[in-house]
Automatic annotation (TrEMBL):
Pathway(s) where this gene product acts: Amino-acid biosynthesis; L-lysine biosynthesis via DAP pathway; DL-2,6-diaminopimelate from LL-2,6-diaminopimelate: step 1/1
Source domain of life: Bacteria
Enzyme class: isomerase
UniProt-recorded name of the protein: Diaminopimelate epimerase
Site (Could be important to modulate the pK values of the two catalytic cysteine residues): 160, 209
Function: Catalyzes the stereoinversion of LL-2,6-diaminopimelate (L,L-DAP) to meso-diaminopimelate (meso-DAP), a precursor of L-lysine and an essential component of the bacterial peptidoglycan.
Family note: Belongs to the diaminopimelate epimerase family.
Positions annotated as active site in the UniProt record: 85, 218
InterPro entries: DAP_epimerase_AS, DAP_epimerase_DapF
Subcellular location: Cytoplasm
Coiled-coil regions listed: none
Amino acid sequence: MSTRIAFLKGHGTENDFVIVPDPENALDLTPAAVAALCDRRAGIGGDGVLHVVRSAAHPEARHMADEAEWFMDYRNGDGSIAEMCGNGTRVFARYLQRVGHVAEGDIAIATRGGVKRIHLAKDGDVTVGMGRARLPEGDVTVSVGERSWPARNVNMGNPHAVAFVDDLAQAGDLLAPPPFSPAAAYPDGVNVEFVVDRGPRHVAMRVHERGSGETRSCGTGACAVAVATARRDGADPAVTGTPVTYTVDVPGGRLVITERPDGEIEMTGPAVIVAEGEIDAKWLENAAR
Ligand SMILES: N[C@@H](CCC[C@H](N)C(=O)O)C(=O)O
């Protein structure tokens, strides 16, 4: 193995990622190695890792290789695997553009949540087709300390609980995952969004992400919030035949989410690469154990 492994660092509305290009899927990125890379003191630091692999070289993505050459093997900061990462898809696309794997315009990438279509402007925002939301039936409750709120269960490929609160400060320090019930609603854990109104079709949120803690933004979370807010507001594009757009402010910036009458959701926001460097392979090998 070479003694140096290339990496880049990027973010989308301050949801930040260590990008590890590994076209032939040669690296052994164990959960411990991912957690070490994401460690903000002893590692590089990030909410998660975007492992960049050719779809044809990854057992989970081979079936998508005809549609999308590149697979976003996303990992949470604690090393766990998640089905989807919305901000990650934008940053992943920006990386592919930067190194010349794709040109600006329309591209496709493979994710565990299926193939995602992305529109990549040269320097501007990136738009991702996020697919449809699923809204499983059943009451869900989330709590922080002594307070509890009813939450809407929204699945964007990954699970979300969306709670409307009076003030985002009610979410507290979010150092631990907010407890939820019933446990059966989310057998694999959940991302929890706390939401307040900011104006017509404009909300703000904070999020505690499964596997990463409180982050400055969550793209799938913002989509879940837009859909939950639309239904609360009595807006359903499938019924009215008219697209609905919400602006979702996150601590790290702003995302714009549109739900179309066919249920397809589009998310638009920034994606920035901030640095490139080399990882010491020996350090990573030790961290991987
Ligand atoms: N930050 C991401 C979501 C990442 C996955 C999530 N923590 C999970 O475990 O489902 C986003 O932008 O969507």
